[in-house]
Design brief:
- The complex is a heterodimer of chains A (111) and B (149).
- With 111 residues, chain A is α+β, with helices and mostly antiparallel strands.
- Chain A is 35% helix and 32% strand.
- Chain A has a domain of 76 residues: Hotdog Thioesterase (Thiol Ester Dehydrase, Chain A, Roll), CATH 3.10.129.10.
- The longest helix of chain A has 16 residues.
- Chain B is an alpha+beta fold.
- Chain B has one domain: Thiol Ester Dehydrase, Chain A (Roll).
- In chain B, the strands form two sheets. In chain B, strands 1-5-6-7-4 form a five-stranded antiparallel beta sheet.
- Classes of the chains: A alpha+beta (111), B alpha+beta (149).
- Chains A and B meet through helix 1, helix 3, helix 4 and strand 2 of A and helix 1, helix 2, strand 2, helix 3 and strand 4 of B.
- Strand 2 of chain A pairs antiparallel with strand 4 of chain B, so a sheet runs across the interface.
Chain lengths: 111, 149
């Protein structure tokens, strides 16, 4: 298994949103997010997808670019202050988890 | 260089499409954009990517998922976004590297594949395909999101 841990901050959410143009206030407005039942602002799902993809690129190398298959499902939100652990098992099973539990499940395999 | 923010309709800036507006099978207008080394570098920075993981036969490639920052732009140009959308899941299929040391002209196209309601949430599913403008297929993404209205 390979893994990495990425502490989450609002600045990271802002920087990703600055690049992709995402203006959904769930990512930026803490009061709005809490009013909608979340612990705080939500990180961008595609940012976490990229964390898994980074491990997959490390695992599979060249083949990842030509026949990689990445599936992710977001099962719980990630908020500022979360310590996000990203893992990719030998069989391609992927997971992200924080101190609050599992946030993403999926797989990264070759076709 | 095309920054995603230049081509992605932003939440709250236009009248949003509602669940009733989305039509299964509808095609999204093609979106052509360029990914430059600067965009690749910024993407790698904001997703904590390690460049060493993306060497292909000694050449620096981008994370092939770099096109993800353009995915919603393709759909939102047909159906402007609501506030409060939540991403549910994605499947990426990668077919060819996006090189980090050159400018790549890419066309994104796609269509709405499904929509349904479940436990009070409104779900939409769509597919986006990214090709280089010379025809080389790069990435296909199958996406699901939930929206409040």
């Amino acid at each position: 298994m390979i893994e990495k841990t990425v502490p989450q901050t609002q600045e990271m959410f802002n920087n990703y949103g600055h690049l992709n143009g995402d203006n959904d206030i769930l990512h930026y407005d803490d009061a709005f997010a809490q009013k909608n039942g979340f612990r705080g602002t939500l990180g961008h799902g595609l940012m976490y997808t990229a964390y898994v993809a980074d491990l997959a690129a490390k695992k599979y190398g060249r083949d990842w670019h030509y026949c990689g298959e990445l599936t992710v499902k977001f099962v719980a939100p990630v908020c500022p202050g979360d310590l996000l652990r990203v893992t990719l098992a030998d069989n391609g099973k992927a997971e992200c988890s924080s101190q609050f539990g599992t946030t993403l499940v999926g797989s990264a395999v070759l076709r | 260089m095309t920054r995603p923010s230049e081509v992605k309709p932003r939440e709250g800036e236009q009248t949003a499409a509602l669940f009733a507006d989305w039509k299964i099978g509808s095609e999204f207008p093609e979106l052509t954009f360029t990914i430059t080394p600067d965009i690749v570098n910024e993407y790698m920075s904001v997703v904590n990517a390690n460049p060493e993981n993306y060497l292909v036969d000694g050449r620096q490639a981008s994370p092939p998922n770099v096109v993800a920052v353009y995915m919603m732009a393709v759909m939102y140009r047909k159906y402007p976004p609501q506030q409060g959308g939540i991403m549910i899941g994605n499947t990426f299929s990668f077919h060819h590297p996006v090189w980090a040391d050159e400018t790549t002209e890419i066309t994104g196209s796609g269509r709405l594949t499904d929509k349904y309601e479940k436990k009070g949430r409104k779900y939409i599913c769509y597919t986006v395909e990214f090709h280089r403008t010379d025809g080389v297929k790069l990435t296909t993404i199958q996406h699901t999101s939930a929206f409040p209205e």
